[in-house]
Design brief:
The chain is mainly α. It is built from 17 helices and no strands.
């Protein structure tokens, strides 16, 4: 369930043109197929902790898995861009509940001695799904049609829904939490996170604060943040309890934010380079990007065993250093780089993602009390998604600025005195 939810963040990114053609949508409209999902998901992630405490993990996860499957079906058979955007928003909102619930459940059910097995699996899912998302999406669209971006979820979704209902049974609902439900906190959090995600998603294409709508959204996000933080500290039963007094958790959340920048940023820029600069097909992109996923799968069990013998902070330092090396190697990239020249940077990237993700999970969640897990898991996963949004905003701003620079340079050469221009 968590894999499907994370995969669907990026699965449409390589196929937006086909969706646009299939639904007769405009270029500005079709980007909302991804933006609507992200905005809705980022609101649900911190809310899921409260919902699973109030209704139990079994009910929340089953509802999310079933709802996600239904919305996937409706997305596949949407007949207009308006329908698609609405279905994607609901799909993102419902799917966002599965991500932090998995993290919280793993640290609640399993004792520390068993977490060395579970943490690499969760880390692999959290990093592999966004890595292969664009590749899977592009391949499905090429071989079948864009409808299969969503139909591929139906079978696994039904299975997860049934398994969740019959097998999850480790906590009970606490409906007393609904008596003092903080509606002000819910609405302010929705405005804060939704408007922030919109600013980060649309800001680069609208030249940031040159557009009124970005300024209004930024102001709404700031106002929502002030009210949300105020309610989180004074409310008897806050939607998200920010009073977690554990320095390891907040340090791990900060590392998760930085990891999100690199994870989602490079997942976005690699396929863009391969498609637009090298002109690779979806299958060729998949073959190239597969290396990162393969290295992640191979290194996950190794990292789990090493975690038993080596301090998590040391692994974290090595992981971020290796990630830096993979980025440094890519700074020399040209349009002529082929599969083999991209091999070494991807090996560094794939192994470093696991060296970062597993220790980060352990540092953030490993020292918390069981009653803190559900609330803290939502906050922890939120930081990774926000980091990804910031990373994409930075990268797209750089691309847009460089595009403008190159156009300026071209215009400087087209003069009346230039023989080439004449």
């Amino acid at each position: 369930g968590m894999f499907m939810s994370i995969l669907d963040i990026q699965i449409v990114s390589a196929s937006l043109t086909e969706i646009q053609a299939g639904l007769s949508a405009g270029a500005d409209e079709v980007t909302w197929v991804q933006t609507a999902y992200l905005i809705a998901e980022v609101i649900m992630i911190p809310l899921s902790g409260f919902l699973s405490r109030a209704f139990s993990t079994r009910y929340v996860f089953t509802f999310c898995a079933g709802g996600f499957t239904i919305m996937s079906f409706l997305c596949a058979y949407a007949t207009s861009i308006e329908q698609m955007i609405v279905f994607r928003a609901v799909q993102g909102f419902i799917g966002g509940g599965m991500i932090p619930t998995v993290f919280a459940s793993a640290f609640t059910i399993f004792p520390p001695s068993k977490r060395v097995i579970v943490q690499p699996i969760i880390g692999l899912v959290a990093t592999l799904a966004p890595t292969i998302g664009p590749t899977v999406g592009g391949y499905l669209t090429d071989v079948f049609s864009w409808h299969w971006l969503f139909l591929v979820n139906i079978g696994p979704g039904i299975a997860v829904t049934l398994v969740s209902w019959f097998l999850i049974d480790f906590d009970e609902p606490d409906l007393r939490l609904l008596k003092n439900f903080d509606w002000t906190g819910l609405f302010s959090m929705s405005i804060f996170l939704g408007a922030l995600e919109y600013v980060l998603e649309e800001g680069p294409s609208k030249n940031w604060f040159d557009e009124n709508i970005i300024r209004y959204a930024a102001f709404a996000s700031l106002l929502g943040a002030i009210i949300f933080f105020w309610r989180s500290y004074i409310s008897t039963n806050p939607i998200v309890d920010l009073r977690v007094r554990n320095t390891s958790f907040w340090a791990g959340s900060l590392f998760s934010f930085v990891l999100g920048i690199g994870l989602y940023g490079l997942t976005y820029i690699y396929p863009v380079y391969l498609a637009r600069v090298r002109g690779d097909t979806a299958l060729q992109i998949g073959q190239t990007m597969f290396i990162t996923g393969l290295v992640q799968m191979l290194s996950a069990p190794i990292v789990g065993r090493v975690m038993m013998r080596v301090d998590a902070r040391i692994l974290l330092a090595i992981g971020f250093a290796n990630f830096g090396v993979s980025c440094a190697l890519m700074t020399q990239v040209t349009k002529d780089w082929d599969f083999w020249q991209l091999l070494i940077p991807q090996i560094f990237r794939g192994s470093s993602l696991m060296l970062c993700m597993v220790p980060v999970n352990s540092i953030a969640m490993g020292a918390l009390a069981p009653q803190e897990m559900k609330n803290a898991s939502g906050l922890f996963n939120l930081t990774r998604n926000l980091g990804g949004a910031v990373g994409l905003a930075i990268i797209n701003t750089f691309i847009n600025n460089r595009w403008a620079l190159h156009l300026t340079r071209l215009r400087e050469q087209v003069t009346a005195s230039s023989e080439r221009a004449q």
